[in-house]
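Problem: given the chain below (541 residues), write out its structure.
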Amino acid sequence: MKEIDIIQQIRLGEVSKVQFKERLLDNYDIGCELVPFSNTRGGTLVVGVKDKTGSVNPLSYLEVQETANTLGNIASENVVPAILVDVETIPMDDGSLVVAHIKEGVNKPYHDNRGIVWIKNGADKRKVFDNAELAEMMTDCGSFSPDEAGVRDATIKDLDKNTIKTFLSNKFEKVLVRKGLVGDAFREASLDTVCSAIASGHDGEKLLRNLRFIRPDGKITVAAMLLFGKYTQRWLPVMTAKCICFVGNSLGGSQFRDKVNDADIEGNLLHQFETIMDFFTRNLRHIQVGREFNSQGVLEIPYISLVEFTVNALVHRSLNTTAPIRIFIFDDRVEIHSPGTLPNGLSVDDIVAGTSMPRNMFLFTNAIHLLPYTGAGSGMLRALSEGMNVSFTNNDRTNEFVITINRPVGNQVSKESNQVNDNLDTKLGHCDTNLDTSDVNLDTKLRHPRVDLDTKRPKISNKQRDIINFCSVPRSSKEILERMGITNHNKNRQTYIMSLVEAGYLEMTNPEHPNASNQKYRKISSKTNLTFFCNIRQYFQ
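Solution.
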């Protein structure tokens, strides 16, 4: 450091990466200063400055020599495992300052010689007792991989065969094409048949073992449960997301336009991704790109950018942090909160430049075969190339990485024009509210400008909603009725499945042959119903 730089820093006072000491009086105390630097982002210790007042008391030539030797001894004896300290001197008028540079460690967690782990807490430090924090430090330096940890008591029966087949069809597409397992032949084939085609003599369990989704001790890995789990949150309850669309611009607001229920978001990463994207598409405004009323609209925030940000949150979140992903839509912005700060010493500038250093390497390299991203780091560049006003915050205090996307000013809506009208809600059968009045001026008759155009469909029960979410990937009638715990016969199929098909919540994968033996049912994504829009318009005229 240059003299002018150190003088400037002394005037500014102590910060998280710069600490002052007048003299090295207690080796243990100094060791407790070096440990948190090693456990976080590194830092600098300046000797010859009073930490309480910032006044300079330079060291003599002899004191400089003694201080340099003492720092070396402390780094090897009072920090475990031992670290290296880079020491330099800064000449002053009446002596010198000793500046010790401590790098971020590669063998975390570090502790003092009494076994206490310290980390930085602003300009101060604090002790660490939480196993999750210790695991995050070990993950940061590569000595622990949480995505390869075992899920206690889970078995291969807790994984969804259809999602595994989808994964295998993408990962081994060329092999399956050569074996003729495409189209209907692939859909009708069992998981074991697909696995045997990929690797002769392999069934589902053996192939998953070879792909490291099942550990040598027989435990299902966290990555397998996240990618393929039937009921992922049963085993990993915090691996979920909270999605809320607020009225106004405050996180403390008590009114919201839309909220994804916990039961709706539960599922593997593919299901979570689809649910989050549905949440975005029904709550963000669509802008007409053509002159005709029926021309195709685009989201006010580019869809490709939302995909990239969402996938990054799902795949790169900290698996050690006991907190869900949080996604908030406000009138003026969208916020995506991902648990855990940037890993491996990455900075916001690195992310913006397209640097890719994934936290969960095993999950990262396999999720590419289920989720829409390349994994090469180019996706963030594509997302930013869309010309959005977006900012990134690496928040050490809350231990999260936050993406904030400002909504275009012309598309923001006022609080008054978006409050729920109880009379309207009653007339519409308490339907969800998501009508975009930018397409037609109903402000004087519809005080709530967002009415879900699919809500002409009958109101559904929680059990029916569970079936719909279960069918985010195609399910057979047997699978659906087994989930409900009832027998598989025609009356139950009609009551519990066909009623949802007729109501427009589910669709057949083979509609031309309703009674086909390979018939499955899948969830229908939210779509705009122009006929219902006109009916609502006429209703209030």
